[in-house]
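Hello again, I could really use a second opinion on something today. I owe you a coffee for this, so here goes:
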Amino acid sequence: MNLYRFEVALAEGPIHVIIAAENDDAAFRLVDIELEKHYLSMPDVKDVSLYEKKKIRKGTGFVLSQLETAL
């Protein structure tokens, strides 16, 4: 099982969707399902990008931030 972090480009701006799934195909399908459950009507999705993928194990997680960091 993997934990996926997707960046979804909407007309209003980008959002992040976190999915737990067995494989990449299932994860991409679940993004659409979660968007349909979250919004009253399906938003205008411009693009869905796989941002990060990690094996699920104790201590696995993601940091979500809207702050832009410059390195």
Observations:
- Residues 16 and 65 are 10 Å apart (CA to CA).
